[in-house]
Amino acid sequence: MIKKILISQPKPSSENSPYFTLEKEYGVELIFRPFIKVEGLTGKEFRQQKVSILSHTAVVFTSRHAIDFFFQLAKELRLTIPEDMKYFCVTETISLYIQKYVQYRKRKVFFGTTGHIDDLIPQMVKHKNEKYLVPLSSVHNDDISKMLAAKNLQFTECVMYRTLSDSFTEDEIQHFDYDMLIFSTPTGVKYLTEAFPDMKEGQVKIGVFGPATAKAVKDAHLNVDLMAGTPEYPSMINALRDYLETENGKQT
Fold first, then answer.
1. pTM of the entire predicted model
2. Where does the signal peptide begin and end (predicted)?
3. Predicted confidence band at 93 (pLDDT cuts at 50, 70, 90)?
4. Cα–Cα distance between 9 and 226 in angstroms, integer?
5. Of 251, 212, 244, nearest to 236 (Cα)?
6. 3-state class (DSSP) for residue 247
7. Which class would CATH give 4-35+169-248?
């Protein structure tokens, strides 16, 4: 029977998350523990890039993190973001998150449908006279800059937040008592094998999201007991529910 599961993602902010429903239905304890943490740059660090936020007329957001740290930096730098600033987001969900900081106006918020920047570029081209600011993580590639440059758009990339690894602590290693681990990226698998180099196949149940994470588990000579991100189980919730139904059965 599965009693305690580590899930390598942030704890859901909504009390109505289906993860909490699973806890009650199947009598399990879910511990949300991401292996990557994100922190914003300080105003002093940002100034070193010599980027003027107010010299731009539009901002491109690829994640909620980018929105949070953009407005946090603006506040720290005591900048008043103009009401006519336009926002271009890779998904509608991300665009709606802007409401946390400014009034949502359809005429100044644009979004794509696939979550990829190339889907958003046609809308940006329609506003080719805008001066785009693109907040990024310290870990990024040149894909966005190449695509925007290819369309002759005016843009400035800048780092506003950093992505840091957050491996198992000594205390976590000593008190490791999980029956199952759920990994969404290969990074978590890497930290597991570093913390427990002698872990054997079958010692703990392992669930993964996507083929890349599954490969990392198999390369570590461990077994994949549950897999999501497939046609049968596109979401982890459904995959985990069916797995617990077999292992535990409903407790309520």
1. 0.68
2. none
3. confident
4. 16
5. 244
6. helix
7. alpha beta
